[in-house]
Amino acid sequence: MDCGICRTVAGESGNRDEAIFDNGLWHVRHGGAPYGVPGWLMLITKRHVPGPWAFSDEEAQSLGPTIRHVGQILLEATGALRIYTAWMGESWPHFHAHLVPRYASMPKDAKAWGAFDLQRAAGAGEIQVDLAEVDRLTKLLRERLAASPPP
């Protein structure tokens, strides 16, 4: 199977260097262009697994502490009011959770589920995201998770 996520996790996607953290179970990266908001992260299983119901015991035990830790670091690094989190798992055979900072000021005043439409809006040219801020946060989050990896 030709899997885009496997290529991304292996660093073969040709995209900007958006990888932030990687261990035996998880790959964390900036959500990728088009950017809905700076700091939009994705937590992705390293192996093909459609969702939590198919996790190994190790993945199941790791998900909560990992998502909490990554979310806390994201909250501190961005100064966001909260971190929206959702997963659906329809596009690729890898579980992936979106962690989206909800800032005091959001493009299109997006809140709740509306924040998840910002990536589509960016792709349609309806909003512009500061790429320097994307790069700054990617570097900062990479440094913070290297210094303090998830448990």
Structure notes:
By secondary structure, this protein is an alpha+beta fold. It has a single domain, classed as HIT family, subunit A. Helix content is 34%, strand content 18%. It is built from four helices and five strands. The chain has helices at residues 4-9, 57-78, 118-123, 131-147, and strands at residues 19-22, 26-30, 41-45, 82-87, 96-102. Strands 1-2-3-5-4 form a five-stranded antiparallel sheet. Strand 1 and strand 2 (26-30) form a beta hairpin. Helix 2 (57-78) crosses helix 4 (131-147). The model has no long low-confidence stretch (mean pLDDT 91).
Q: Helix content range of the residues, please?
A: 25-40%
Approximate strand percentage: 15-25%
Please report the total strand number as a whole number.
5
Widest β-sheet, arrangement of strands:
1-2-3-5-4
Layout: helices, strands, pairs:
Elements: H1 4-9, E1 19-22, E2 26-30, E3 41-45, H2 57-78, E4 82-87, E5 96-102, H3 118-123, H4 131-147
Antiparallel strand pairs: 1-2, 2-3, 3-5, 4-5
Quickly describe the structure.
With 151 residues, the protein is an alpha+beta fold. Helices cover 34% and strands 18% of the residues.
